[in-house]
Amino acid sequence: xxxxxxxxxxxxxxxxxxxxxxxxxxxxxxxxxxxxxxxxxxxxxxxxxxxxxxxxxxxxxxxxxxxxxxxxxxxxxxxxxxxxxxxxxxxxxxxxxxxxxxxxxxxxxxxxxxxxxxxxxxxxxxxxxxxxxxxxxxxxxxxxxxxxxxxxxxxxxxxxxxxxxxxxxxxxxxxxxxxxxxxxxxxxxxxxx
Length: 193
Fold this sequence. Notes:
This protein is of the alpha+beta class. It has helices spanning 2-22, 84-91; strands at residues 25-29, 37-42, 46-52, 55-62, 67-75, 79-80, 103-111, 120-127, 130-145, 152-163, 180-191. A hairpin with an 8-residue loop joins strand 7 and strand 8.
């Protein structure tokens, strides 16, 4: 019996990392239900709101272990303010310069789990050739069975803000525009097969 225990114990210990990782589940973002959006000042007169119509990414989630990760890649040429002349300007060389910087990418670690649900993301935003830390607060998180795919389906709404000057996007600064931008990432994702 002592020999069996001495052989099985090292084997069990060596398998622990695999057992811990086995609880992590990967989800693919549903591009038809994921629309990152933003709010930006217009000379202190009004707040312009827009969204990015094309994005892709994934989420890894370990509800029981209280960990996970997320990556959302956003196509900047899909920007939509609801005003086409402004969309065209934002895509151009004076702002996003999508010919050289076609995507913005948010990557982060899920954190602050309460009852299996994350309450924040500690991550980075890569935009216009610059990558900086950006934390997001998760206001809503829920998983349910998808009615068509019969797999786990999760959704979340996360919010943060950043100073666009830090990314080299300071258009309008001389006219009194506030450089703070609110970023809201609304996502839905279906568990991979």
